[in-house]
Each structure stands twice: as C-alpha cells, then as structure tokens.
Design brief:
This protein is of the alpha/beta class. Helix content is 37%, strand content 11%. The protein is built from eight helices and six strands. The chain has a six-stranded mixed sheet, with helices on both faces.
Length: 235
C-alpha cells in the first residue's frame, strides 16, 4: 500500500509552481558558496520529515539557500538548524545534537518538522503569492498527521499561515497576535482535528534573532520543554 506522506513528498519535490523560486534555487546550486564547492546541491523543494505518528508538528518559514536547499532536509546545514537541533535533542525530540545530511541517521521521535514554503527564496522573503502556492502542501501534511495535538510556529509568517488554515473563517473568537511564547487552544475546528489542538509560538531560530539576543538558548529551551509536556500530557 502506498504511504500517503511519501506520495505527498514526491509531489512536493517535483513542484515548479513558482518561477522566481525555481530560478533562484537552481542558480544558487550552480554558483554555490565557496565552502560547498565540492557538494551537489539538492536544489529542489524540501519536504517535511520526522515521525509520522508525531503529536507535535513544528513549522518554519523556508529552506535556506545554502542550508536545506543544499542538503535537502529541513533545518539542515545552516545556522538555524545548528540552533534548533540541540534544543530538540535536550527536549527529547531528536536522536542527535546536530543535523548534517539527509543520511546521517537523525530521527525525530514525536515530532514532524515542516515549513510554510519549500523552496529557498531570495533574501529569505517569499512573496504572498508564493506562500499561497505552497500552503496546500502544509495543509495536506497536517491532515495526514492524525495524532498531532500541538503545532509550534517558528516565526510570525508560520504562525499566521497556521492560523489561516486551521481556524474556520466564521470563528467569532479571534486568535491572539503573534508573540514569543504564547500558547492557545484552537477552538471550533472539529472538522480539522477531533481532539483539542494547541498552537505555541516562538521566534524563528534565524541568525538574525539568535545573534542579536532576541532569541536565546534559554528562551528556546523553554519552548521545547513546553512542547514536550503538551505532546505527552497536555498543558
């Protein structure tokens, strides 16, 4: 029997919906960064990965040009991943402290890692149209991950995207605005997820946030300890 997530992964990897992003990801792979001259870049859309029975799903923005666009795996090969994976390891969501390549043996017990956009955008800024083109892939991953009870939004763009597709448009109670550490229960979405669904927001572990001190290791560690607790037993 065909695995639905594997079928979706193949569809994502073959996607060419956004001409600007296709041109950019492939140009970066041709020109390369000096440190990676001897490597073959992935240069395709990057699918989500992790535990198919996960109770926690984390959503970032997009692959880095010389990170995931090079390695082919979310948050692998750049500074954001270097900040993320030690936090996941300490919270019990990763089998290793680091993620270096698609075949490094890393496992994410209890976690599925994804993103709003699957192609590296110039200056890390996908356009609204590019986000709209890619959101259906994230929605379908979410639909297929039947056991997810918590979504961790890494950054405002991820948070806004999640809010748009999990909440019904006629919902009377408006969700809180994005801020680091907010946790709320998405009410009135029985058609999307029969169990309570929680949304937890964090600043994105980008170099811009981590090097300026906007997001510290202590702050990020708290996010993942809370995620681990909710994944196991609820808030």
């Amino acid at each position: 029997m065909t695995n639905p997530l594997e079928t979706l992964e193949a569809e994502i990897v073959a996607c060419r919906r956004c001409p600007r992003l296709v041109e950019w990801r492939e140009r970066v792979a041709r020109e390369k960064r000096r440190a990676y001259r001897g490597e073959d870049y992935w240069a395709r859309p990057v699918p989500g990965f992790g535990d198919e029975s996960a109770r926690v799903m984390a959503v970032g923005l997009a692959p880095g040009a010389h990170g995931s666009n090079r390695t082919g795996r979310m948050f692998t090969g750049d500074a954001s991943g270097d900040f993320l994976y030690p936090a996941l390891y300490r919270a019990g969501f990763a089998s290793r402290l680091e993620s270096t390549a698609r075949d490094d043996g890393l496992a994410l017990p209890g976690l599925f890692l994804s993103a709003v956009c699957r192609c590296a955008p110039p200056e890390n800024k996908p356009s609204p149209e590019e986000i709209r083109n890619c959101i259906p892939y994230l929605q379908e991953e979410f639909r297929l991950l039947k056991r997810v009870r918590l979504v961790v939004a890494l950054g405002k763009i991820a948070y806004d995207a999640i809010v748009r597709f999990v909440l019904p448009p006629d919902l009377l109670v408006k969700p809180p605005l994005f801020s680091h550490g907010i946790l709320w229960r998405a009410e009135g979405i029985v058609s999307v997820r029969p169990d309570p669904l929680w949304i937890l927001a964090s600043y994105h572990p980008s170099r811009q946030n981590t090097q300026t001190g906007r997001l510290t290791r202590v702050m990020f560690g708290r996010i993942w300890r809370k995620a681990a607790k909710i994944g196991r037993e609820g808030p």
